[in-house]
Amino acid sequence: xxxxxxxxxxxxxxxxxxxxxxxxxxxxxxxxxxxxxxxxxxxxxxxxxxxxxxxxxxxxxxxxxxxxxxxxxxxxxxxxxxxxxxxxxxxxxxxxxxxxxxxxxxxxxxxxxxxxxxxxxxxxxxxxxxxxxxxxxxxxxxxxxxxxxxxxxxxxxxxxxxxxxxxxxxxxxxxxxxxxxxxxxxxxxxxxxxxxxxxxxxxxxxxxxxxxxxxxxx
Length: 218
Ligand code: HEM
Description:
Elements: H1 5-21, H2 24-30, H3 36-58, H4 77-87, H5 102-117, H6 119-134, H7 137-148, H8 168-180, H9 186-213
Helix pairs in contact: 1-9, 3-4, 3-5, 3-9, 5-6, 5-9, 6-9
The structure holds protoporphyrin IX containing FE (HEM).
């Protein structure tokens, strides 16, 4: 295959990216049309997803395919927990009674399944979230700070702040090199690309569910 894998996966997921980016919920949220309760609910869903991703990563550290992608500076669970404590007014018991939306539970199940039984699939999920967070995530942070008045890079938006990554562009370049060198054959690469599309669809599903929960009353 002549096309570098990083280009292939990016090109293949472009359409799904546009769909996720332009979802009604994201548009309303970033357009400043929704309250901080919607942002909180969204952040809660992310917490379930990243816990699945980061719990699952533990067993894959030494895996030849997924292992190199697992890097401590990407981990987001602790940041999400700080954000959520803040979003819940500093309440220590914010976890109590917190349940994932069905769409989030489906996403979590798929991530856990890949982590357990398919390292290539896990890479697809890893790419879809972390490379996105390092890119468009910065736009979301900026909007969130302005809309709901969070301190710049402070509690509420720590999820979007990668303290251990001083140069995101260089990090993304190195990440793409990892993708290009992933030790799998062309057929497996195609399967990973398909899983990436599925990962985007799972994200879109969560947005759809959130959109139904926070319709604009206009
Ligand atoms: C409103 C929401 C979003 C905005 C504004 C946004 C914006 C962006 C931007 C500006 C880039 C950089 C493109 C480039 O390097 O030329 C990017 C890349 C990316 N985004 Fe998003 N995005 C959003 C939502 C999402 C979602 C929901 C996902 C998936 C869960 C996602 C996954 C990705 C990925 C994987 C990349 C890296 C593409 C690559 O370089 O291989 N994005 N996004």
